[in-house]
Amino acid sequence: MPATHHWNRFRVMKRLLILNSKGGCGKTTIATNLAGHYASSGTSTALLDYDPQGSSQRWLELRPEKCSNIHGVFAGKPTQGGVTRSFAFRVPGDTRRIVVDTPASMKRLEMMEMLRTASAVIVPVLPSAIDRHVTLDFLNELTTLCRQMAINLPIGIVANRVRINTRSFKMLKETLEDFNIPLVAFLRDSQNYVHAAETGCAIAELKQPTLKKDQQQWSILINWLETGQLPSPIPPTSKQMQHSMNLR
Length: 248
Ligand SMILES: Nc1ncnc2c1ncn2[C@@H]1O[C@H](COP(=O)(O)OP(=O)(O)OP(=O)(O)O)[C@@H](O)[C@H]1O
Ligand SMILES: [Mg+2]
Hints:
Blueprint (H helix, E strand, L loop, with lengths): L13 E5 L8 H14 L4 E5 L5 H8 L8 E4 L10 H4 L8 E5 L6 H10 L2 E6 L3 H20 L6 E8 L4 H11 L5 E6 L2 H9 L12 H16 L10 H10 L1
Parallel strand pairs: 1-4, 1-5, 2-3, 2-4, 5-6, 6-7
Helix pairs in contact: 1-2
The structure holds adenosine-5'-triphosphate (ATP) and magnesium ion.
């Protein structure tokens, strides 16, 4: 199936789900930076925070007035006064990108509900051994659920907090080779993310020259989301090299 298989259907409005049951892998970081990227490029954007901890919501509260508006919806607490969930979580009619931040642990039914309405899923993963293993279980769960629901969503893995020449990143790439889900981008480990989180801004909106590398890495992720194009391959792992040598 070509990587672009779903996009034409979502030209008008896309709902981008950031999902991984592993805590601390970068869901909120990616959700807030993605929302900031779209808003600052003139796209009408909403940020839905399904996490009771409300970290995305807090980031929105910190957002300086000079930054482009993002419509925030805090969906992490049960609604009061008999207002139905769908009404409470409505976004303005002209919204073009809805970014959905989710909590680390979600019930199966809740996840199914979110998958049903999503245009694409981003799974952030940290390269450490613990994170790799937990994420593999999660990817199995996610692909099984999509199969059972008969939905064919674009799902992309984003390796987060990457240090490029480390053994863990190499191991992560090798682990993912056995999966049918592409590694669509990677983001380096950088204090720029900590700074962005503290100021209510996105990497795309900050000006310092030290952000260039991070902005380049983001453009690869955005390109995948908007066109379905995968980045040019990251240098092969030793497992791949060995495999190609055996084929000779
Ligand atoms: N690329 C990065 N470089 C440096 N720090 C990062 C990066 N990505 C995330 N962090 C930091 O790691 C911590 C966890 O990230 P984040 O809150 O985005 O994870 P999460 O998946 O949303 O966690 P939770 O499951 O608790 O909601 C935060 O302090 C964040 O600033
Ligand atoms: Mg979070």
